[in-house]
Write a structure and sequence with these properties.
Layout lengths: L1 E5 L3 H13 L3 E5 L2 H10 L4 E5 L7 H10 L6 E5 L4 H9 L4 E4 L4 H15 L7 E3 L2 E4 L4 E4 L2 E3 L3 H13 L6 H8 L8 H17 L7 E4 L3 E4 L4
Parallel strand pairs: 1-2, 1-3, 3-4, 4-5
Antiparallel strand pairs: 6-7, 7-8, 8-9, 10-11
Helix pairs in contact: 2-3, 6-8, 7-8
């Protein structure tokens, strides 16, 4: 899952980005509203965390602009203004939820999980492929009764593959979804992570080719028998 965080307090932005990354999200940061607007147009985000008080373009105006241009991604607003009028104004302009600063991280994580579940209501809460299962709410992965401990990048790649099933994903697409804009790797890095992921799946009892390589194209989940 990819999140765009728009926050002009650099220290807070770094703290939130690090905390969200630890929760297995890919996080891009923008420090003003106009930059946030341009980044939202350039990549497909699953959720936007948006400060109200921003330079260039304030958060409520950015939220309204996104909605008026047809963007339906969930938007969670952050604000230091703990008043009912501010909350109503943000919600009326298209925000889905509101968190007041100082931010309680556990509350923020819970609100984000709820918004992401709402945005993918048609999808099963637990992703399954045969005996393989991944729970996005708890970040737990297993094969049958065997838990599988993955690195954050292995987890993100597996979640991406499971959400796309038989659709072939190129390495460049995987990089776009799993790595932040600030630290995109070489495509060979994807191959290394997929190799490690396959080894852990095999150790848990999965077949060697549960993740299929499509020559010169990319990867996908293999057809279930």
């Amino acid at each position: 899952m990819r999140i765009l965080l728009v926050e002009d307090d650099i220290r807070l932005a770094e703290t939130l980005a690090e905390a969200l990354t630890d929760q297995r999200y890919v996080v891009d940061v923008a420090i003003d509203g106009e930059t946030g607007w341009h980044q939202a147009q350039s990549l497909d985000y699953d959720l936007l965390v948006l400060d109200v008080m921003l330079p260039e373009l304030d958060g409520i105006s950015l939220c309204h602009r996104l909605r008026s241009h047809g963007y339906n991604l969930p938007i969670l607003m952050l604000t230091a203004c703990d008043t009912l009028d501010d909350e109503i104004n943000g919600l009326d302009r298209g925000a889905d939820d509101y968190v007041v600063k100082p931010v309680d991280l556990q509350k923020l994580f819970a609100r984000i999980r709820a918004l992401l579940r709402r945005g993918t209501a048609s999808a099963a809460p637990i992703l399954r492929w045969g005996d393989l299962h991944l729970n996005p709410s708890t970040c737990e992965v297993g094969y049958g009764q065997t838990p599988i401990h993955l690195t954050p990048k292995e987890y993100a790649l597996l979640e991406l593959l499971l959400r796309n099933g038989r659709r072939v994903l190129s390495r460049s697409v995987m990089i776009e979804h799993v790595w932040s804009l600030e630290s995109p790797p070489e495509e060979h890095t994807v191959k290394v992570h997929i190799r490690g992921l396959r080894q852990k799946l095999k150790a848990a009892g999965a077949s060697d080719d549960l993740i299929e390589t499509v020559h010169s194209m990319g990867y996908r989940m293999n057809q279930l028998s």
